Amino acid sequence: MANLPLFLAFVAAAALLTITPGLDTVMVLRTASVEGRRPAAMAGAGIALGCLIWGGAVSLGLGALLQASQMAYTAVKMAGAAYLLWLGVKLLIHPRKALEMNADSAPQSGQDAFRRGFLTNILNPKMGVFYITFLPQFVPAGVSVAAYTFFLAGVHVLLAFIWFALLIAATVPLSGFLRRPGAVPALDRLTGGLFVAFGLRLATSSSR
Known about the structure:
208 residues; mainly alpha; 9 helices; 78% helix; globular
């Protein structure tokens, strides 16, 4: 490992962001509660494939961009810092009050669940923006930017698989916890503080 402390920091941050309630969590929980464990697992697999495709696209484009131009690197860094700060402040000031769990249009088979999970993720450009702004902070000096960025995206997908497995195995108690008053706002504020910290770190970091 090129930089073990930096990698462990990524794992901790990515794990926290993975378990923060969002669209993926809602989809897996809803599918597990309405259709069962197998369709929920297929939905999680579709989401993971979408993440890997976004990770590959971002790692190739980002690597070429950062290696070609110092100015481009600085522009991406400052844009990423601004985005993270904006997102963090937004979560701190306006956290969600509850997690919406609508059961409309539930998938009817494992194949349908996989397709729904994949399309929901791959058609969401915010995933690409997230990878562009988040992953570069954890790429150590002296490594291939493209390869290491894709590696980090793969680690993020692995963490998501673990989280989905836990969701599917404990659908009832976890969905009940996420519906408790204060649970979602607390997690949103925690994530918001994390985004602000990373945004400040990115903005003040030295150039590569």
